[in-house]
Amino acid sequence: MGRGLRNGCARAWNLRGCPPMPAQTRPQARSHPLRSSGFRQATESLENKEFRKVFGSNMAFFLAMGGQSIVRPWLAFELTGDKLDLGIVSVAMAIPMLILSPFGGVLADRMERRRLIVLAQGFAMASEALILGLILTGRLEFWHLVVTSGMMGCALPLIMPARSAIVVNIVGKTGLGPAMALNMAGVNVTRVLGPAMAGFLIPVIQVDGVYMLNISLYGLGLLTMVTVARMPPPHVAHPASVMHNLLEGFRYVGTNRLVLMLLLFGLVPMFLAMPFQNLLVVFSEEVWNVGPQGLGILHASSGVGAVLGSFWMAARAPDAGRQKMMMVSVMLFGTFLAIFCASPWFGPAVFLVFVANIFASTFSTLNNVAIQLVIPDSVRGRISSFLMMSVSVPLLGNLPVAAVAEEVGAPLAVGGAAVLAVFAALAFYLASPELRNLDEHVRDATSLHA
């Protein structure tokens, strides 16, 4: 593709001559130019007061969710003792996430974004309070976990696209890469503290005490988000109907080969490999016999690796290449995860899952930031909703991986899925010229939409 053709496609939906999206008329929030790489660049977004509020709200909300990632499967396993039920709880959350994610993206492009987040977080908090009430009254049954997981699955598609879009409103395009990576690093910190906290506190204050603590964190995140300044959506999203906006988002992805390939490349390996997190309770109980404390250590080690991966990406120079790093990281993630599954000892397994998640986080961060850089703000909520699939699709993957684990054991099931993820990533790379030329495409698209 020649330079003239690329320049001629300014304001177009994609790099291949598709019809243009209307230009956004509302100016974005100003951001300071990035002055350096390293730690300074990674944390520069925190100088923005509104970003600090969003970041703090994220930390509280996802810290509570991290704790629930231990408590919910622990309760399910205690109630039924069936590995397959762990997958059922995850699928109950994943199905509404998949169905509602596109609508959540449309709402993020039509509604005032802060208000949408506040309403959805309140609904999520109510679902967890319902489980706490059932625990305290001694009436909790497995189907309650399934229903409330579905309720959380309805809330997250409304929260996540709006959260991604609001970051761009606050920091602008110039600071988007480091701000998103820092946001992901913060979320990954909660994946360390939340599961570790829950795993260690369950024997101390019991499950009901952990639930009370997590609901308090949900409340803190909600109150912090209320203080964030109003962030209206792009004006161009309003005139059309909801269904027109929804179809417009699908049309954008369908005609933009680069964005489509990035979305698929981010989803397929994660669908195969990331379900290992849901089966860590089986590894802790049946493979290494380390109990809830060992489960907390595994989750914490996994989360520390994810934090380091995200922070590493936040500290990289904005113009550093993405394509090679994405390929290397996804293949090393699958390799280290397969070795983790083969470890007969708990200590080495903790280190292996730590290293595996460094590369998993590196891959996800690079993929998500690349997508956000090449899309216009007028469709940002809708495309962010497709990125939600990087959360919901692995949850769907939990069911088949859990079913295989029921037959052959968790180590073989997860190890086999990790190997398949490596081959899937390699197949995407070989079959897609867009991925092989990713760095050039990102530079061109960024200049078009700047």
Summarize the structure.
The chain is mainly α and 450 residues long. It has helices at 3-8, 39-43, 49-80, 83-110, 113-136, 142-171, 176-226, 242-255, 257-273, 280-287, 291-315, 323-342, 346-374, 380-387, 389-408, 410-431, 433-436, 438-449.
Structural key phrases:
450 residues; Growth Hormone, Chain: A; mainly alpha; globular; single chain
Q: What is the CATH third-level topology name?
A: Growth Hormone, Chain: A
Q: SSE order, as H and E? A: HHHHHHHHHHHHHHHHHH
Helicity range of the residues?
Answer: over 70%
Structural class: mainly alpha
| CA-CA gap between termini | 20 Å
Radius of gyration of CA atoms, rounded to a whole number:
21 Å
Low-confidence stretches: 1-36
What is the CATH domain class? Mainly Alpha
Question: What would CATH call the architecture?
Answer: Up-down Bundle
Number of helices: 18
What's the count of strands? 0
Topology:
Blueprint lengths: L2 H6 L30 H5 L5 H32 L2 H28 L2 H24 L5 H30 L4 H51 L15 H14 L1 H17 L6 H8 L3 H25 L7 H20 L3 H29 L5 H8 L1 H20 L1 H22 L1 H4 L1 H12 L1
Helix pairs in contact: 3-4, 3-6, 3-7, 4-6, 4-8, 4-14, 4-15, 5-6, 5-7, 6-14, 7-11, 7-13, 9-13, 9-15, 9-16, 10-11, 11-13, 12-13, 12-16, 15-16
Could you explain how this protein is built, in words?
- It is a single chain.
- By secondary structure, this protein is mainly alpha-helical.
- The chain has one domain: MFS general substrate transporter like domains (Growth Hormone, Chain: A, Up-down Bundle).
- Helices cover 79% and strands 0% of the residues.
- The protein has 18 helices and no strands.
- The chain has helices spanning 3-8, 39-43, 49-80, 83-110, 113-136, 142-171, 176-226, 242-255, 257-273, 280-287, 291-315, 323-342, 346-374, 380-387, 389-408, 410-431, 433-436, 438-449.
